[in-house]
Amino acid sequence: MRRFENKVCIITGAASGIGRSTAIAFATEGAKVIVSDINESAGILVVDEIKNNGHEAMFIKCNIGERSEVLNLIETTVKVFGRIDNAVNCAGIAGKISSPVHEYPEEAWLNQIQINLIGTYYCVKFQLEQMLKQGGGNIVCVSSAAGLVGQPDNSSYAASKHGVNGLVKSAAIEYATKNIRINALCPTAIETPMIMHGRRNLAENPEALESAKNHQRMKRMGQPSEVSDVALWLCSAQSSFITGHCMAVDGGAFA
Hints:
The chain is an alpha/beta fold. The chain has a single domain (about 10-190, about 225-250), classed as NAD(P)-binding Rossmann-like Domain (Rossmann fold), CATH 3.40.50. The protein has helices spanning about 15-30, 40-50, 65-80, 105-135, 155-175, 195, 205-215, 225-235, and strands at about 10, 30-35, 55-60, 85-90, 135-140, 180-185, 245-250. It is globular. The model has no long low-confidence stretch (mean pLDDT about 95).
């Protein structure tokens, strides 16, 4: 028996990286997967891949920074499938600017807060409303190692991810007796398009790539599947006594 047979699972940020890996993994485990992303063309390709492997998926476009779009994501999912059993909130952005706080452009700083923190809040809020109606569910928010420690020259990202971890811990306490578990994942250097072509441009900066690898005790980049495997575990009955946990997925970096 597959762990998520006929379960309904929403994955935001599912067009690439950790989100894509998570969507495919849930589908392989029997779930009906809602692939959601702001990138419609890439998201549809993920749906096609899932369907071509004999599984069920649907794409819903969503910019999580827009309240109305998140509400539409939840309402459409419930209209089509009747419920939401699991949600993995992967959507987020990493700024391309490295700058100390007093010089960081305000618009760019606030945009990361809007997407990463407020957008995740919208997702969690509306997911919780539905899960309360149906009697339970599981939520995992993909945060970051930058939500566990400070990150010089990247304060907006770190602040947004610290906020996500605070949201997860607070909500986990509030709904712990409601059959709803809420956890976070805090990855370090994972080989995704966002990190390889983002602020430090690891794909074209050998020194930065080597530095990222060396920060992990395993001396390598993590793979998206190594994060999505943990996300599925946190949504499964195998982790039934875990809630409010912000789990480092870090190759030993914080050991």
